[in-house]
């Protein structure tokens, strides 16, 4: 191969790389075509790794995490020949992808590792560019973990550390403003959030290029803020702009979120026909997102295993785990006993039926709790072999999950929970079925209904809230799905249950006034 041919090939690939990079956030489908060509014709591991980065970015923009995983964890990204800058960028993408799949511990690990690599970069421009990207990613991790206070602290530090870089790069400043908006919004500081989202949008005039993905995110955030303020018309306008941009890049997750906010908007403004249209679309997209997440988690699990990077946390202290399980069961029994004693006085017959139901449900729940002595070293069911260690690890995580409020997350799915547990969906589904005698959806729904019942019982304000609010509060996507599930579990509608609680409280007040 002569020198001219090699030089010419490198020059052409550099031009193609620049073109693909420009297309990633404006036309990801075209960027994918160009990047695939670069990957096929690349002559070195470095060029192949750069093509993998472009492909991973493009699929992330489209919300296709499954395909992004394939390119982020490609073998060429791990060879010694690739540059330090490329390794840093790959690691930032890994951290972002793992965060989006709710694998927060793994995401944090890659961020920490990357932080050390950034310090070793000799080029100041590269250090600022990649250091800023990493800092923003770390702040987003805080936000996804619902740690908005820490996110704001991190963002303020980023603002100070990269002030000169931000002054020279309006697109970076826009990203900082957008992330700050989310942090303030998560802290219910909507006035501050509105300032930052308007600042971000105002930079569209000076930001070079047409970052369609960024614009979809900004107008989605603006529409959501207006919705929080019950400014339904302004919210609708902003969300339609976001919908147009999200449709261009065909990002299923963004489209789902925008349609959900439009459905809520129309429900709150009593536009029932529009609500049905966008709620139906939201439900379709929600199923698609759940499928993507499930495929992505399984693919990621296999990729990590194949690359020797699998980091499942398996606690080998079995006796300690079993003891914790028994303690939790004992605590549930005591809680049930206290509940029955407290409710045994001044109860009407209809409310007594509810208590009996809850008693039976809780007793059945305790009966289906893990029985460690029945666990065999390896258990095969429906072709699935789960080791004792893996099974016990999943059980311990399920115990912690039940005590948390993560089941209230509307986006919680089998794939999401498997991702958080750092296992695959088949193992998790099998363990839930074995020890709780439920499929995943029923398991989550019972936790949600149990939560809202407790809120109705302990907080007098809850009986005055609309059913749609209660549905959203405990993680259901719609009023109708909440009512259907509640009735299937409790045996009566939420409205009837609330009326019975009101009657009970009225009776208790009358008795107290007499005494």
TrEMBL record:
Residues 408-500 form the HTH araC/xylS-type domain. InterPro entries: Homeodomain-like_sf, HTH_AraC, TPR-like_helical_dom_sf. SMART domains: HTH_ARAC. The keyword Transmembrane helix applies. Pfam families: HTH_18. The chain crosses the membrane at residues 325-342. Keywords: Coiled coil, DNA-binding, Membrane, Transcription, Transcription regulation, Transmembrane, Transmembrane helix. Signal peptide: none annotated. It comes from the Bacteria. This is Helix-turn-helix domain-containing protein.
């Amino acid at each position: 191969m002569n020198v001219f041919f090699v030089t010419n090939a490198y020059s052409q690939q550099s031009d193609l790389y620049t073109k693909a990079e420009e297309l990633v956030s404006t036309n990801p489908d075209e960027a994918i075509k160009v990047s695939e060509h670069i990957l096929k014709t690349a002559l070195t591991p470095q060029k192949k790794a750069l093509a993998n980065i472009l492909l991973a970015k493009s699929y992330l923009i489209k919300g296709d995490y499954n395909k992004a995983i394939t390119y982020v964890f490609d073998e060429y990204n791990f060879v010694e020949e690739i540059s330090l800058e490329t390794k840093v960028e790959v690691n930032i993408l890994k951290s972002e992808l793992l965060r989006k799949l709710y694998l927060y511990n793994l995401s944090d690990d890659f961020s920490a590792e990357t932080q050390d690599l950034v310090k070793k970069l000799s080029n100041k421009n590269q250090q600022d560019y990649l250091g800023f990207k990493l800092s923003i990613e770390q702040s987003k991790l805080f936000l996804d973990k619902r740690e908005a206070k820490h996110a704001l602290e991190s963002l303020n530090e980023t603002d100070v550390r990269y002030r000169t870089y931000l002054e020279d790069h309006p697109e970076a400043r826009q990203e900082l403003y957008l992330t700050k908006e989310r942090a303030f919004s998560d802290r219910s500081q909507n006035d501050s959030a509105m300032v930052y989202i308007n600042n971000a949008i105002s930079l569209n005039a000076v930001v070079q290029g047409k970052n369609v993905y960024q614009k979809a995110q900004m107008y989605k955030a603006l529409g959501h803020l207006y919705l929080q303020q019950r400014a339904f018309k302004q919210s609708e306008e902003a969300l339609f702009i976001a919908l147009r941009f999200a449709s261009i890049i065909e990002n299923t997750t963004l489209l789902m979120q925008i349609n959900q906010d439009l459905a809520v908007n129309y429900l709150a403004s009593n536009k029932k026909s529009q609500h049905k249209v966008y709620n139906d679309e939201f439900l379709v997209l929600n199923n698609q997102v759940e499928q993507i997440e499930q495929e992505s988690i399984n693919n990621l699990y296999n990729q990590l295993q194949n690359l020797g990077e699998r980091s499942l946390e398996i606690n080998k202290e079995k006796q300690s785990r079993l003891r914790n399980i028994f303690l939790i069961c004992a605590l549930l029994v005591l809680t049930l006993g206290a509940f029955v004693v407290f409710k045994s006085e001044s109860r009407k017959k209809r409310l007594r039926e509810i208590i009996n139901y809850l008693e039976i449900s809780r007793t059945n729940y305790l009966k289906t709790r893990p029985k460690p002595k029945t666990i065999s070293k390896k258990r095969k069911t429906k072709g699935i072999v789960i080791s004792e260690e893996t099974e016990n690890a999943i059980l311990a995580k399920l115990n912690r999950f039940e005590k948390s409020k993560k089941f209230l997350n509307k986006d919680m799915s089998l794939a999401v929970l498997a991702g958080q547990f750092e296992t695959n969906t088949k193992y998790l589904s099998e363990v839930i079925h074995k020890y709780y005698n439920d499929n995943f959806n029923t398991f989550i729904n019972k936790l949600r209904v149990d939560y809202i019942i407790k809120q109705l019982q302990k907080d007098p304000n809850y009986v005055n809230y609309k059913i749609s609010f209660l549905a959203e509060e405990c993680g259901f996507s719609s009023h109708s799905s909440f009512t259907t599930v509640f009735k299937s579990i409790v045996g009566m509608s939420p409205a009837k249950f609330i009326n019975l609680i009101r009657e009970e409280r009225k009776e208790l007040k009358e008795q107290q006034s007499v005494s």
